[in-house]
Amino acid sequence: MSRHNAPVLIVGAGPTGLAAAAMLADLGVPSILLERWDAIYPQPRAVHLDDEVYRIIARLGLGPRFAEISRPALGLRLVTSSLQVIAEFPRDPGMGVNGFPAASMFDQPRLEELLRSAVAHRADLITFRSGVEVSGIDQSDSGVTVSATDRDTGEPITFRGSHLLGCDGAGSITRSAISSEWRDLGFSQRWLVIDVETSADLRQWDGVAQVCDTHRAATYMRVGDTRYRWEFQLLDDETAEDYAHLDAVVPFLRPWLEGVDAADLRLVRSAEYTFQARVARCWRDRRVFLLGDAAHLTPPFIGQGMGAGLRDAANLSWKLAAVLQDGVPASTLDSYEQERIPHCTGLIRLAIVTGAAMTGGGHGGDVLRRTIAPVLAGVPGLATRLTDSTTPALRPSCYVRRGAVGSGIPRWVTAQGAAGLAGRLAPNAVVTADGRRLDEATAGFRIVAVNAPTSEQEFEIRRRGGTSVVVAPGSPLGQWLGAHHARAAIVRPDATVMAAGRSIAEVYTLLPAAGSRPRGCDTSSRGAL
Known about the structure:
By secondary structure, the chain is α/β, with parallel strands linked by helices. The protein has helices at 15-26, 51-59, 63-69, 108-121, 173-177, 246-253, 305-326, 334-359, 362-378, 382-386, 438-441, 455-463, 476-483, 504-507; strands spanning 2-5, 8-11, 31-34, 48-50, 71-72, 75-79, 85-90, 103-105, 126-129, 132-139, 144-150, 156-161, 163-166, 182-197, 208-211, 218-222, 227-233, 266-280, 284-285, 288-290, 296-297, 446-449, 467-470, 488-491, 497-501. Among the domains are: 2-69 and 102-182 and 277-354, FAD/NAD(P)-binding domain, CATH 3.50.50; 415-529, Glutaredoxin (3-Layer(aba) Sandwich), CATH 3.40.30. Helix 1 (15-26) packs parallel to helix 4. It is globular, with a radius of gyration of 24 Å.
């Protein structure tokens, strides 16, 4: 039996596990990443992410490469079964406040290739073991032990770490190991997902089209230059086996194929998915954490399923690094559940409501949509709000299984302060004369302010491992602060505002000592705009 040790063990090398390993490596934390399969699952699954999640990918150094494999989506159209447009809610394909398009379409296997390359680039701190079947997870006061088997040789392997991240999907062995039950939010629908490859020009809009037909709800989207996806709600007496071949699915696709011969299409996949809305009741048991689909399942109507897992990784990685490297209290890690469970649950509920609004209500619902949706689309500013990719601010949960909010958690971890900024993402605005944005120019904890710190404040900021970013009042970040009646804000490593105030003096002492400083980060750097 072979034995291997690392501070962090990660079970599951999908997008969430790969991203978590890379984020921890950038913070100097070694990990062992375990994956059952040798190769990337080749079939397309997730196809959409927003600019907040794009920003996470860019912080891993993958922004330009992701741009090469993705395409901006132009918004949402509500259409009838004959594709008559009921209403259109457009999105600007240009750069938004996060520095990226508000919505991007992509092919998940290609994204996973990028994330695997990021892991390979950090091989000095990440041990990636594929072909490993995890059979047991045990923890004690001193660490976590994973029992596994090499799928090729049958050799038993033991992995030992201080903490474990369960990124192992909906059938998570990690979730079973900590006896975390699903909380069902009351949504379950069977859908047929069809992916097609073709070089033919379908002459369709480069956005998402939602067919608002309660008899057969459907969704259409262009994923890439030659890749298209359709999703159709299955009737009670239908199964994916009924539509396993191209000739069986073409009648579904016919409204989108005017002038296109079926012979020009290649069926990539036709598969049945049960869209569910579930949240694990607990995401942490002492040293073991749940992330991604192991912790939550989201209906696809707002495109937040895979992105939620990357948000989990971004939220937890810097906190875990702070505990392991900087000596901050382990109770810091309680804030992972407190922040992520309400945020994720809110997005899942929004997906349920959105799905019902677009497809529910029977014939009366169809009539109502055709009447009201065009009116909503014509209200100045409302269409923009409906397609805004900004997610709600993080808020400490009032329902935490370990007790009262903030109990034992350092005050610098949870969102604090006035001005309506705490818990929100700071804009990824340009902060240097050479055009670099906030995330590219700085890392770790940052104080963004319209006034320069005093020498004493600057000394303390640096001593605590932070960076000061001084911006002009008329700059994008200066205007952002001013709009919220603030002149200074602490931005966490995950780009979330921790606290905001009317001066640096009000917030700078909240910085943690040496808080999760990335490898090679020069904390003396200061923004110029």
